[in-house]
Amino acid sequence: MRKRQVILRRQEPSDGSTTSSVTVRTVRYAECQKNQAASIGGYAVDGCREFMASGEEGTAAALTCAACGCHRSDHRREVEADVGYERA
């Protein structure tokens, strides 16, 4: 599985200092939480432990799990936020 990094916001200092902050989020999709027995009134998950994209990033297949066939939104999302400071 490939981790994705998203830069949320770059904030330039307003007080004239030479440092700025960058927030980077690493997004990872864990086990599948889709209820496979919802149509019969039960609860059962398929046991898929980790999202693996079926295709290349940027294609429609990248949103489908190769292991269970579910959409990426059916998998538990884990977000790690890192705040870093840079000197200009």
Automatic annotation (TrEMBL):
Location, primary (coarse class): cytoplasm
Cellular location(s): Cytoplasm
Molecular function GO labels: DNA-binding transcription factor activity; transcription cis-regulatory region binding; zinc ion binding
UniProt KW GTP-binding keyword: no
ZF-HD dimerization-type domain span: 29-78
Cellular component aspect of the GO annotation: cytoplasm; nucleus
Alphabetical keyword list: Cytoplasm, Metal-binding, Zinc, Zinc-finger
Region (Disordered): 1-21
Coiled coil: none
Gene Ontology biological-process annotations: regulation of DNA-templated transcription
PANTHER family, A to Z: MINI ZINC FINGER PROTEIN 2 (PTHR31948:SF162), ZINC-FINGER HOMEODOMAIN PROTEIN 2 (PTHR31948)
Name of this protein: Mini zinc finger protein 2-like
Taxonomic lineage of the native organism: Eukaryota, Viridiplantae, Streptophyta, Embryophyta, Tracheophyta
Name of the encoding gene: LOC108988280
